[in-house]
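pinned: reference chain
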Amino acid sequence: MRRPSRSPRVLLAALALALALPVGLTAQDQAQAAQATPAAPAPRLTSSPAELTLTVPRGRTAPGYRLTVTTAQLALTTSRSGATVLATAPAGTGALRFRADGTWQHATRVTDWTWRHGTLTLTAATTAPGTSVQARITPAADRYQLDWQVTGQAVPDRLGLAYALSSAGHWYGHGEAQTTSGGPGTDQPWPLDTGQVAHTNFGPASYYMVDPFWYTSRSTGLRVDTGHVMDVALNQGGDGLGRFDIESAEPYRATVFVESTPLDVYRDYIGIVGKPAKSDATYRQYAEPVWNSWAQFYTDVDQAKLLDYAQELHDNGIGGHTLQLDDKWESDYGNMTFDPKAYPDPAAMSKKIHDLGFDFGLWVTLWINLDSDQYGYAADHGYLLKSATDTTKPCTVTWWNGTAGIVDLANPDARAWYEGRLKSLMSAYGVDGLKFDTRFIDEKCAPHEGYKPTDYQRLGAQLADEYDLQGVGIRVHWDTTAHRAGFVTRQEDKGTGWNSLRASVSQNLAISTIGYPFVTTDMIGGSLGQPAPTKQVLVRWAQSASLMPLMYASTSPVETNDPTTGQKVVYDQETIDLYRAALARHARLAPYIWDQVQATLRTGDPIMRPLFFDFPKDRAAYTVTDEWMLGPAVLAAPQLTDAPTRSVHLPPGTWYDVAHHRTIPGNRTLTSYSTPLGTAPVFVNLHAKGAQQALRAGRRRSRRPGGPGGRWRR
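pinned: its structure tokens
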């Protein structure tokens, strides 16, 4: 009798398993190990006249799924346990689309297909004459790879995917979103589909903190693997579609995740881009705020004003680890020399700041204005990025402070020149750390020979990693180096109203769940040049920030300036007391937060995260916009509006209400929870890891820890 032959796939799986087994095992040991580690069931394909169906069986850690390809009009529908969890745009819109000669075209009927070596290859006609789409779908246990390109007569300049948003429930991710309602400065929809995202120039050179990753309430996710600029639209014009277009004709490469929970999708994504290898912030920088001069003075700042600012904070018991001098301190942008009229004795200024107990920091940029005395030198020596349209000339870009060239970090001589000047400045004036601002490349500039735009995120991260960023971090993204560097991420400038406060919360949730877990809001109270924040906004913002990983402060609760009128704004004693109380609460939470930092370094999980990451079966949690989990034990629900009460949703579990010293069963919504100005609701999950530590932080009211094993600071 003939023995049945084994398929090449089975033979390869057996060989791979044998190679993975420890060396030195007996044949019997190897056989037992092979039986104990069965190979995952292989995907299978079935076909009918109307569709092709890829079935991926459930695995030990994967839920299994089915991908259906409609052949009459190419469309992709992903289902899990019999329910749709992601589907491309409806017929007529075009799932796989491209732009040629200024007109959008799309794939239509499938004309040919093959299933070979675990990959489904499709050929489809298109609405463009003589042009077809070729796509490859490669399934794996918890995801599938979708790669496709255009062939034939049409010459595209953009390729895109389009999805029906409602097919996947709600959408999250993206990072800082440009929206039709003022995002990211005053609007950040959460979930994304509840607003309208219209984000052009979504790419690796963007100043916004963005990554091409989105995930959904039905536990699917999309990652677009590109180094090109994208045009992303989610529910633009209320059309219910998600469009993810790349400004390139290169093959479109995407990964679609299919998992059991949104947190599983996030972890799959982190498995690709990487998790932080360290945190660039110290314990003290988590425990205490950094004070930055920007929202307090904007560019109307000088030595006397800065020292008065520091002295008032000190005298009112409003401490912090650092005082940073933001824009504008240079004589001209790029000179790296203090304006002698505004700063007659910067060394003495630095000493006074240190004497008050602060470190001293400076705002810096790689952008050198054309009127700077360093611009000509840098241009003559080839230290500046070149123009994308004429590589014989430096690239010039317009920004909020004029017109500038950008130091080319890919040029070793340029970087050495820039860093040499930077370190000399720091040494001369006792500068402890830096706030790097602006971008490291612009779309108008050509990368150095042999480099891509994404490389400048890596180069910027490597540069910044050599300095103390003083808890304000840096805005690098898209590249794996940025993910692994462990920088604190600060937000785009916010307004000074309630809408910006609410946007700062949902934006932190968006940033931390695309792989940047060490988040802080924009400066407490906002920094977008609007009228100074009211007492209520300033206090509520401080309370909200106290329940996040770090606190980034600028507007003094003692007094500030209204940039729209030039008038001084003086706050009352209650404002000072409540701001100080928010700082004290954050300091008491610091040991718990520091433990979450260490957990993130092990797992990559975000510290500040949406409720549904911890409670995926709680359907109500997916649309909660004003609460979050701080690690596994702390639920933050501060008041983000000018109202005397708020509703608080409690997921399943047993919760301790810190404000009212009571235990409450979860899986309920507390309506009309009283929130006088001194109350920022916090609840502790009594059965979560870290609960006892969080409870101690909620009950203590006096001393502040200087750090693990360190002294107590008074």
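why pinned: The longest strand covers residues 103-116. Residues 573-603 form the longest helix (31 residues).
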